[in-house]
Specification:
Oligomer: heterotrimer
Largest sheet of chain A: 8 strands, mixed
Largest interface: A-B, 44 and 43 residues
Number of helices of chain A: 9
Number of helices of chain C: 13
Number of domains of chain C: 1
Chains: A alpha/beta, B alpha/beta, C mainly alpha
Order of helices and strands of chain C: HHHHHHHHHHHHH
Order of helices and strands of chain A: EEEHEEHEHHHEHEHEEHHEE
Number of strands of chain C: 0
Strand content of chain A: 15-25%
Largest sheet of chain C: none
Shape of chain C: elongated
Strand order of the largest sheet of chain A: 6-7-8-3-9-10-12-11
CATH class of the largest domain in chain A: Alpha Beta
Structural class of chain A: alpha/beta
CATH superfamily of the largest domain in chain A: P-loop containing nucleotide triphosphate hydrolases
CATH topology of the largest domain in chain A: Rossmann fold
């Protein structure tokens, strides 16, 4: 695989500030992204896993500039798109698309399939009339849907079919990069497999680059080349899928997360590490390493000093004070 | 073999809607022994949740049970009147749902809600109810029970809320816990906690659990026996190991092969063509035949009956194994 | 250039499919007997008001030939609903009265919707400071009892048909702004709005193409029901003497003058009351029917 970066983030921060009431000037800060730096290479799938509130969804939306970052850089083909405004950002939009979690709300109920799929084409190209319809038909064919459905409405389709249409819409402008935000978690198992296969097929055919966000470890494991594990707005571990899922995980959180996932094959079952407590509130993070209150191997330094993400082995980053030393024996 | 605690026999439930009659449950049968965790697994629309609600006599309008029996300790729950069901519901049979935050009333403290339930089912005064509640919180591993008792639901995390729901069920003396997707809304690390808790409770208190889920991994790690539901009836049932590792029904096999697993990495996943049929117009014969890779002529005409495969109770409803199919 | 809003770029089939939608709506509507009856009632009153001079032999607001001798005639062959204290034909007065009452109803709602929709959509879509500002303004309006506010404005502007209408519309628009804002807020969370943004579709296009069509159903339902309430409020304003001037016929005025004779001669206040009741109820039922028919999901379920 050629290893040229397509998308990079550097020290990306997103802080949501909420202030309640008209007169109370009390401000709450939620650090949804707390200094995220990562590189997504051309034609790879980078999986992002983590529990609710870890910032994985915010990461996808911030990279696409659907929400503005608080600080940091977002490089797309080397160009920093973080400071761009609506107008200057527009040319980049067509290269970066998104598929959302809930296929049922991904379509305007009053738009026909054609009008939905045509929306990005009308916004960015001057395709109109018969050529627009032809392009829409071609897109439907790419995602395995028949051309006759162009004039049907979203409520006439099942979740799996709608997700195919969402993929078709995302492909309309021949993007280079697609953020897939839990694209299969609303679907049944038998349909989920169809969508995963479709995504892999399209990636091979169209040389796409994916950021695949999911809480489902087995799905991420299947589709990703590399995986970033997030906890409380930070990447705690990043490595190849093979390394992480074949016992090479280094960070105690990754280990616990992997061991928590229910596994069918009895021969693959590991000793389960059950973490105590809940993920902390991002509005009120613990000092030091964010994971230390739940960490089974935490030592003194963990509650004081925030560990940084270091390349421990080649292609393998982890943010833990104990990694590199003998972990908990 | 002991008497089953609960047995659902040939249950049929339909919903009459403007769009037509939805056949949600079509001859569902299974049983649960005392102290057993039975997994009812299937995809959306397979009738698993409605069946759980039917056990408590809570099939939502416009649904109605049109045939079948639900025996609890040998008594048919479908023949109980409203008052009798109110005593059983939340008492001897309790239910927990997917979204614990929606199961608790946001304007009352957790303590006042659990006390009310306990006092509805047991003749105790306020202090005894409080003591039972605190013991319940202790039993489900909630830290600082006294603080939880005073807390409002929104002050607790999803995992803690689900523990409160389980404590409620235990404190009012449930023998059977119906858990409808109890961990689907929770994170994996929290899911692991709750599943471990359910396992402990079964061991420590002998509670039977009907675990309704779509997740075969949860079934594999938690359930003693499992029933795989498709289009409102069980297509394969038996001890978990038999069903998951020596599956016979093409649907069970399809489901298992569709799951991404480490051994399949890099390959295309097997998927079942088409999608789950709607209860509005079910195919004739076996409901799975339009998607089945091994469909035969008889499958289109005749719905297969469960065939017993071995001594441990592995049954499959498929013409590949039925007497009719063998001819 | 921003994304174009016009549908002309899209092939004809899409536009015709829109007509197909309307056809389906009409079909579902026809199958609802209550809806058809209320529509017929409303149409009868509207036609009656428009063609009043030709429908009744008593021109000039039912005055006919000045005939004070014929006052307080009970309903009979010459005067189907009797006559009032000046000998005017009550049926004719009802028909003429529909002119002011129905136009107040329609115009008030049109003005309120025209102010409320854009403000609500902008508040809901952008949120933040704009939202705060617009919502505080609506709060101010909503803090007054609507009838009292309308009466106060009408009194300040002086009693006339136009002023009554402006007064009522002023108390009404905040409800639409709130309704549209709430709908917009929930729509904004749906993925299709986010998807459109991610594709670089402009805010204006998103509001016009995605937000407004999806808020129109609740607005239409609310508006239809509000026509009835606006007529009622209009009647109340006339009742207290701030609406139309006599001798112009008006249902509210008829009740206010007729109420003193109501025990012995109930027909002319009663007829006006019945007219208000029928029209208000019909608009309410029609609003209900529109709600069911306009949603493709419930409509398909019915058909």
């Amino acid at each position: 695989m050629s290893r040229t970066p397509l998308v990079e983030t550097r020290h990306l921060y997103k802080i949501f500030r909420s202030q309640s009431g008209l007169f109370r000037r009390e401000k709450k800060e939620v650090r949804a992204l707390n200094g995220v730096s990562l590189t997504i290479y051309r034609r790879e799938t980078l999986g992002v896993v983590g529990e609710s509130g870890c910032g994985k969804t915010t990461l996808g939306r911030t990279i696409l500039r659907l929400i503005p970052p608080t600080s940091g850089q977002i490089l797309f083909e080397g160009q920093d798109i973080a400071p761009l405004d609506r107008r200057t950002l527009r040319p980049y939009r067509r290269h970066m698309q998104m598929v959302f979690q809930n296929p049922y709300t991904s379509f305007d109920p009053r738009f026909t399939v054609l009008k939905s799929i045509a929306e990005p084409l009308v916004a960015h190209t001057d395709l109109r009339g018969d050529r627009l319809v032809a392009r829409a038909r071609e897109l439907l064919q790419q995602v395995g849907m028949p051309g006759e459905i162009l004039y049907r409405y979203p409520h006439e389709f099942s979740g799996g079919q709608l997700q195919r249409l969402a993929v078709a819409r995302a492909l309309a402008l021949n993007p280079k990069f697609i953020v897939l935000d839990e694209p299969t978690s609303a679907l049944d198992v038998s349909v989920q497999a169809q969508i995963i296969n479709l995504l892999k097929q399209l990636q091979a055919d169209l040389h796409l680059t994916y950021l695949f966000i999911s809480h489902d470890l087995s799905v991420v494991q299947h589709i990703s080349d590399r995986i970033a594990v997030m906890y409380l707005g930070q990447i705690v571990e990043l490595s190849t899928a093979d390394t992480l899922f074949q016992g090479g995980a280094l960070h105690p959180y990754t280990k616990a997360l992997l061991s928590s996932a229910p596994i069918i094959d009895p021969q693959l079952r590991r000793e389960r590490i059950i973490l105590p407590g809940n993920p902390p509130n991002p509005a009120n993070p613990p000092p030091g390493c964010a994971f230390h209150p739940r960490c089974p191997v935490a030592v003194d330094v963990c509650s004081k000093v925030e560990p940084s993400l270091l390349e421990v082995e080649s292609e393998h980053w982890a943010a833990c004070h104990l990694v590199g030393k003998e972990v908990g024996a | 073999m002991t008497e089953p605690l609960l047995s659902v026999e040939d249950l049929y439930i339909r919903f009459k809607t403007y769009a037509g009659t939805v056949h949600a449950v079509n001859g569902m049968s299974f049983h649960i022994h005392p102290g057993e965790i039975f997994g009812l697994v299937g995809e959306s629309g397979c009738g698993k949740s409605v069946t759980g609600l039917a056990v408590l006599g809570m099939v939502p309008y416009p649904g109605e049970v049109i045939a079948g029996r639900i025996l609890f300790h040998g008594e048919n729950l479908l023949q109980k009147n409203r008052r009798e069901m109110e005593q059983i519901r939340g008492g001897r049979i309790a239910m927990i749902f997917q979204d614990p935050s929606a199961s608790l009333n946001p304007v009352f403290t957790v303590g006042s809600q659990i006390s009310r339930i306990i006092r509805h089912h047991r003749r105790v005064d306020r202090h005894e109810a409080r003591a039972l509640a605190l013991a319940g919180f202790e039993a489900v591993g909630l830290p600082d029970p006294a603080r939880i008792f005073r807390a409002y639901p929104h002050e607790l995390s999803g995992g803690m809320q689900q523990r409160v729901m389980i404590a409620m069920a235990l404190a009012s003396g449930a023998e059977l816990l119906i858990a409808d997707e109890p961990t689907t809304a929770l994170d994996v690390t929290i899911q692991a906690q709750i599943l471990a808790l359910l396992n402990d409770l079964r061991a420590a208190q002998g509670v039977s659990i009907l675990l309704i889920t779509h997740d075969l991994g949860v079934v594999a790690e938690t359930c003693d026996r499992v029933g795989v539901a498709y289009a409102g009836s069980i297509v394969e049932t038996g001890p978990t190991a038999q069903v998951l590792y020596q599956m016979k029904h093409p649907y069970t096999r399809g489901l298992l092969e569709a799951l991404p697993r480490p051994s399949h990495r890099g390959k295309a996943l097997q998927s079942i063509p088409g999608s789950v049929p709607s209860g509005l117009d079910l195919p004739s014969g076996c409901p799975f035949w339009p998607r089945c890779p091994e469909v035969m002529d008889i499958c289109r005409e005749q719905k297969p009956l469960p065939t017993r495969l071995d001594e441990v109770g592995h049954r499959v409803a498929c013409h590949l194994y039925s007497r009719e199919g063998q001819r | 250039m921003t994304a174009s809003v016009d549908l002309t770029g899209l092939p004809a089939d899409i536009r015709t499919s829109r007509y197909k939608e309307v056809g389906l709506m009409l079909q579902a509507f026809r199958r609802d007997p209550l809806a058809v009856v209320s529509l017929v009632v409303i149409l009868l009153f509207v036609l009656g008001a428009v063609f009043a001079p030709w429908l009744t032999p008593y021109p000039d607001q039912g005055l006919g030939n000045p005939n004070i001798i014929e006052k307080f005639q009970p309903p009979g062959p010459t005067h189907p609903l009797g006559t009032d204290y000046l000998g005017r034909d009550v049926l004719a007065r009802i028909l003429y009265g529909g002119r002011s009452s129905l136009s107040i109803g329609f115009l008030v709602v049109i003005i309120a919707v025209a102010i409320g929709i854009p403000l609500g959509a902008v508040a809901g879509y952008y949120g933040g400071r704009i939202d705060n500002l617009i919502m505080r303004i609506t709060d101010v309006f909503l803090a007054f009892p609507p009838l009292l506010l309308a009466i106060a404005i009408a009194a300040a502007l002086g009693s006339s048909f136009i002023n009554a209408m402006i007064a009522i519309a002023f108390t009404w628009w905040p409800w639409y702004a709130r309704l549209v804002r709430a709908q917009t807020l929930s729509l904004r969370e749906l993925h299709f709005v986010e998807a459109a943004r991610s594709m670089g579709v402009s805010d204006f296009t998103i509001i016009v193409q995605h937000i407004l069509p999806n808020v129109m159903t609740p607005v239409l339902v609310q508006a239809t029901m509000d026509i009835g309430s606006a007529i009622l409020t209009g009647a109340a304003i006339s009742f207290v003497g701030l609406g139309v001037h006599p001798p112009t016929a008006d249902w509210g005025k008829m009740i206010s003058t007729g109420r003193i004779y109501f025990i012995e001669r109930p027909w002319f206040a009663g007829s006006a009351g019945a007219a208000i009741f029928l029209v208000t109820l019909s608009f309410n039922l029609l609003g209900d029917a529109i709600r069911d028919v306009a949603d493709p999901r419930t409509r398909r379920a019915v058909s």
